[in-house]
Amino acid sequence: MAVLEIKQENFKTDVLDSEKPVLLDFWATWCPPCRMQSPIVDKIAAERSDIVVGKVNTDDQPELSEMFEVENIPTLVIIKNGKPTARLVGLHSKEQILAEM
Fold first, then answer.
1. At 89, is the secondary structure helix, strand, or coil?
2. What CA–CA distance (Å, rounded) separates 43 from 40?
3. Pairing relation of β-strands 52-57 and 22-27?
4. Which helix (H) or strand (E) holds 63?
5. Which own/partner pairs from 32-39 qualify as long-range (CB within 8 Å, at least 24 positions apart)?
6. Is 27 a catalytic residue?
7. Is the pLDDT higher at 33 or at 1?
8. What is the DSSP string of 14-62?
9. Which residue in 6, 22, 34, 64 is the catalytic one?
10. Average pLDDT of the chain to the nearest whole number
């Protein structure tokens, strides 16, 4: 499944209303750990059709970053039934991320 670019416009439909668990990756282009996390998140999206994977550029979407109280990046937020259930801050392995799903 492709990684979705999450913005204010599609947040409700693609994240809150999703019937599948959602993995949100909060990142920025200037963040080296984010660039290391990105291929791991992309791999999860490619391998797992039972999970919606979205990326939120914190520079472009400050409202979403504020909503989730993102202070450090990368931050991964797992959402199930429209509610955050887990948060991972910093660089994490695929295994660590999937263990939280």
1. strand
2. 5
3. parallel
4. helix 62-67
5. 33/73, 33/74, 33/90, 33/91, 34/73, 34/74, 36/91, 37/74, 37/76, 37/91, 37/92
6. no
7. 33
8. IIIT-SS-EEEEEE-TT-HHHHHHHHHHHHHHHH-TTSEEEEEETTT-H
9. 34
10. 96
Per-residue pLDDT at 65: 96
| CA–CA gap between residue 55 and residue 40 (Å, rounded) | 12
61 vs 83: CA distance, rounded Å: 19
Is 82 a residue of the active site? no
53-83 pLDDT, tens digit per residue, is: 999 999 999 999 999 999 999 999 999 999 9
* Active-site choice (1, 3, 28, 31): 31
> Quick one: what percent of the chain has pLDDT higher than 90?
98
How far, in Å, are 8, 11, 13, 71, 84 from residue 94 at the CA level?
A: 27, 24, 26, 22, 19
Read off the DSSP letter of residue 90.
Answer: S
CB distance 78 to 21 below 8 Å: yes
